[in-house]
Amino acid sequence: MKLTAVLLTLHILSAVVWVGGMFAAYVCLRPAAGALEGPARLTLWRNFFAKFFPWVWVSVLLLLGSGYWMMFSTFGGFANAPLYINLMQTLGLLMVALFVGLFHGPWLKFKRAVDAKDYATAAVQLNRIRQIIMINMPLGLLVVAIGGSGRFWG
User: How many CB atoms lie within 10 A of CB 88?
Assistant: First the structure.
């Protein structure tokens, strides 16, 4: 039980880091950064994502590792897991796929464009990143709500 408590704690903290980071970026930093001139705004986002995305990778690994360990140790596998666990897993995997696509596509292009001072290309890629976060953040909030309330569904 101690290992389960530790893994559940890591699972929850990883979700808080990832989803909370998206919320802070989209709801708080994005409007605040809008007042900056293009190059300064794009550089701010480049620096933010360069610090945030390694934490997302750690969160993804911890979420998947702890989640599947708990799935098998607590429920004995997929067949015995309650609906809310399977919903979290499905939405979580969709979130991971969106993040991996964001990271290996728009983020790398955005980073290279900002570094090359190609701000027009960077702006296009930042908009793509924004669109993906606009999908992933509500999914993350939904997963958190499911995880917090699912065991009480009946």
Answer: 24
Write the pLDDT tens digit of every residue in 84-129: 999 999 999 999 999 999 999 999 999 999 999 999 999 999 999 9
Phi-psi region of 61 (alpha: psi -120 to 50; beta: other; left: phi over 0): alpha
Nearest one of 70, 136, 141 to 103, comparing CA atoms: 136
The residues, any chain, with a CB within 8 Å of residue 106's CB and separated by 6 or more, are 125, 126, 128, 129, 132
Which of 60, 85, 64 is CA-nearest to residue 75?
A: 85
SS3 call for 78:
coil
Of the pLDDT bands very low, low, confident and very high (cuts 50, 70, 90), residue 24 is very high
